[in-house]
Amino acid sequence: MNSYVDLQHWNILLITVVLTSLIAWSIWRTRSGHSVSLRKFAALDAISDAVAKAVDSGQTVFFVPGVRDLDNMQTVAALSVLAPVAAEVATRGGRIFVPTSRSMVMDSARDICRQAYAEAGREDLWDEEMVTYISDDQLGFVARVDGLIAREKPGLCLFMGFFASESLLLAEGGYHVGAVQIAGTASPVQLPFFVTACDHTLIGEEFFAAGASLENDPHMLGSLHGQDLGKRLAIVCILAGTVIVTLAEVTGLDVASRLGDAFFTLFRAG
Amino acid sequence: MRSRITQLILSSVAILLIASAFATRPSGADGPALNRFLAFFDQHASLWFSVLAVFAFILGGASLMRTHWRKVTERADDWRYSLVTLVSFVVVLVVGLAKIGGPPGLQGNVAAPDSWLTSIFETVLSPLHATLYALLAFYIASASFRTFRARNLEATVLLVSALIVILGRIPYGATLTSWLPEPLTFLRMEDLSLWLLKVPNTAGQRAIMIGIALGVVAMAMRLILGVEKGQGGRSR
Predict the structure, then answer these.
(1) Is A1 within the bounds of a domain?
(2) Distances (CA, A) of B221 to A70, A205, B14, B15
(3) What span, in angstroms and rounded, lies between the C-alpha atoms of A140 and A150?
(4) Is A182 on the interface with B (CB under 8 A)?
(5) Which among B25, B139, B221 has CB closest to A168?
(6) Considering the domain boundaries, does residue A138 fall inside one?
(7) Same domain for A206 and A85?
């Protein structure tokens, strides 16, 4: 063991260095003028249309940024989606409502929305109560938000971030008032509920890419290019690993067995 | 200026936490000073977050009080609900802080069996939670009814897979296909259901997990490099 670096997790360190380098290089590349082409997300196109429809019909846009605190990456990703959505609502002169279950999330979301209304020149529409704290209690939060949805009848409900069993309770609440519903989460267990109850769902990596994609900022899009490079690398590794392990199993070649062992060592967890 | 300071703090803390994950843990006062600092930082960062969260909770409580107080005083729509929230909030806060019915003092257990707070939890909050949670059964039924319609190929695949998994999990499903002869046992409901869960489902879940991991790394890099908008005070 090195006196500075714990080499027990050398494989994770190596993968981290490779992935972060790829993403950093992609960001630097777009900063120096290279363009990035993005595939279309149906869910993101639907957000813009649904915001326009909700604002035109005088309905509120509900944005629920999950039920975890700022130390959860999904909450951070949700706030990065909130920024362009709040900007779009503010520019169109609509009203956004952000119920939060954590005080620090409320504070950050309030900053983001206040800034969006200020930059759109619509401070007259801004009210601090548009972003409010409900409760840290999971079911208490759901009861209040479902009640608000039932009474206010929003035109669009966005559920972005980490959700547990409240995913279906919230999404069904929105469905019953006829709101357009778009969800985004990286909680695999909750994805089926959102897919079932919502019009569109951003699944896993799409959710983390949504904020960057909506902003359409070249620097942010650079990181998505890096993310795609990482995905290609993962596909190559999966295919190579499958071929090597199959070869080792079928032919019994010593080289293939050693390579197979090396693959298992490289991708072992912990 | 403010956003630059925020970004500097964010980037430094993130880099230190990543470094601490790969740094050797020094035993006692031995080991390089850098590693001792990283170990200290790693150990205390979550504690500092908890301290911040406690202060932020006061902010949240104040926001909640202000919102509902305004509704009550202005007699806004549904102000009665706000009154119930305010009264409940104040009652539970006073009962909890004063430790009524339980052992007093700073060290007294706020959740002692005889305390009023425990009674409120068991007689009010717990049944309310159970009631709300029970709604899930009806919501799952209504959502499934809407989704499981063979409108197109994807929906049909979903419908058939769901039916197999449901039938494979109940005794009736097993009896339905128990007559299948030896070479066709893999087609029995319970085996088909298990295969669906173990093979295509696991493959899909792993693909999603790889995508999530890459997404988290990309998001973290955007935050560390200050590319992310709307975070850390950076102007949009």
Answers:
(1) no
(2) 16, 14, 10, 10
(3) 15
(4) no
(5) B139
(6) yes
(7) yes
The whole-angstrom distance between B181's CA and the closest CA on chain A is 31
Interface with chain A: mutation pick from B36, B51, B212, highest number of A CBs within 10 Å:
B212
Using CA atoms, how far residue B108 sits from A154, B104, B115, B120, B142, in Å, is 46, 5, 10, 18, 47
| Domain CATH code at residue A179 | 3.40.50
How do residues A97-117 score in pLDDT, each as one tens digit?
999 999 999 999 999 999 999
Q: If we measure between CA atoms, which residue out of A127, A136, A129, A162 comes closest to residue B61?
A: A136
Q: Does A132 lie in the same domain as A186?
A: yes
Q: What does the pLDDT look like over A195-227, one tens digit per residue?
A: 889 999 999 889 999 988 888 887 788 888 898
- Residue A161 φ/ψ, nearest 5 degrees: 125, -160
pLDDT per residue as tens digits for the range A21-75: 999 999 888 888 888 877 778 888 899 999 999 999 999 999 999 999 988 999 9
Would residue A115 count as lying in a domain? yes
Do A122 and A183 sit in the same domain of this protein? yes
Structure tokens, B148? 């499981």
| Total domains present in chain A | 2
Task: Kindly state the tokens that stand for B85.
Answer: 């929230």
Would A27 be classed as within a structural domain?
no
Same-domain check for residues A196 and A65: yes
Residues A203 and A255 in one domain: no
Interface test with A, best of B47, B124, B161, B216 (most A CBs within 10 A): B216
The pLDDT of B83-88, averaged and rounded, is 94
Which are the contacts of A196, defined by CB distance < 8 A and separation ≥ 6?
Answer: A168, A171, B143, B144, B146, B147
Contact B218, A23 (CB under 8 A): yes
Instruction: Tell me whether residues A103 and B60 touch, CB distance under 8 A.
Output: yes
Name the residue range of residue A270's domain.
Answer: 231-270
Q: Tell me how far apart the terminal alpha carbons of chain B are, to the nearest angstrom.
A: 15
Q: Are residues A210 and A82 in the same domain?
A: yes
